[in-house]
Amino acid sequence: MNLRTPFAAVTLAAAVLVSAAQAETIRVAIGTQDTTINTATGGLLIRELNLLEKYLPHDGRYQAATYDIQWKNFTSGAPITNEQLAGKLDFGVMADFPGSLNGLAHLKAGKKSLFIAVLSGSVNGSGNGIVVPANSPIQSLSELKGKTISVPFASTSHGMLLRAVQAQGWDTENDVKIITQAPEVAGPSLKADQIDAHADFVPFAELFPWRGFARKIYDGSQAKVPTFHGVLVDASYAEKYPEVVIAYLRAAIEADQLIGREPEKYSELIGKITGVDAEVDYLFHGPLGLQTRDLTWKPEYRQAVATAIGTLKLLKKADTSLDVDTFVDDRFIRAAFKASGLDYEAALNNYEQLPLKANDASTGQQINDPKRVAEIWVEGEPRVRYYASPENAFLALKSIEGEGKAVRVFYAQDRDSGIKLLGNQAWFVRSDSGVVSAFLLKEKAESWAKANGGKVLDFVGVRAALVASNQGDQ
């Protein structure tokens, strides 16, 4: 620059440069997994409700900035990672297992990604599951030795399956035949009895049974290995635009709050967009759901990342190490909580299921025992009805149908694990005194009956027994 240039001209030139910087068009490209319905608060709901636009900054360095918001939907995490590596995505939503692959792939490419928030998960492992064809005689994982099990390779359910097989004391190469199948292939294979079992991530271990051609015989909570879905961001993007990252997470926080207040309404929206039935969406997003929506980095979720990396090394899918302490970065979610007026530490220390604060729809009494809860979603009603016990719910079911109303779905909570179940898929124990308990697995129901007394019944059987007993008491 010429030293004799007038000061006013220098000032004007500087102003032009600042204006040009402020007028930058900032891309916000987000890779979602809409059909992986537990990620809805990090993708689908933000997009459909235009929540991101609400929080993107327009002050300071962003005063004149414009935003190019791009949404791209995928069915699994691997293609999201590929798009990130190609520079086509800034954010990606995926589970612990593919998320760890994402971090390793970035390192291999001389780049870095950050795992910045959890969206939904289970510290006990619920969310992944194993199903068998509806007419299969198999009732538990222990009966799958020597059988063919399909799974989407490199998915979080793949990691769950490998750990579950090893926990049986089996060799993953010789005692079972594990083949790769995406959900869209596994569904027809189950219908045609071409495979003995299929392991999958959210929502297919529930969706396939709901649609009538499979039965769930294993839930990830039996392995007691934490699992979650969360959000990753390109590290250089986060360094350049930290306020944009925080804005995205604030949108995710609001999406979480909205579905928490009206789970039925937003389960319907998720169903409309994804084709995954609202009754299955509610299994995850309703109170006492299969997983808990949780945006905080609990130690168990950090451990899930470490476990995934260890499993990848065991499978020889990774030849480098990934430092979990730098890969998992909670700075942005903490800042988002603060900006939203929320207490991150309180949320971090909260391990409760999504709470249910309600009264029994039949008796009006407060519901206190979450493992005894049953629910009925009546056709045409915007809210699910809650009951303090399966007994109350079954008797209400008879009355509802007697009024000519159709029931969409009956839910029960597993007495052992506390996870939400599709009632018509569950096993029940009716004690000698008439108390009913629900279970995912027949063997768990039999064990409970042996220890506590009672008879093991399926949905039809327990319903008939309760109705007959009630008529006898009248």
Automatic annotation (TrEMBL):
Coiled-coil features, chain-numbered ranges: none
Pfam families: NMT1_2
Recorded superkingdom: Bacteria
Leader sequence segment: 1-23
Keywords: Signal
SUPFAM superfamilies: NosL/MerB-like, Periplasmic binding protein-like II
Protein name: NitT/TauT family transport system substrate-binding protein
Organism: Mesorhizobium shonense
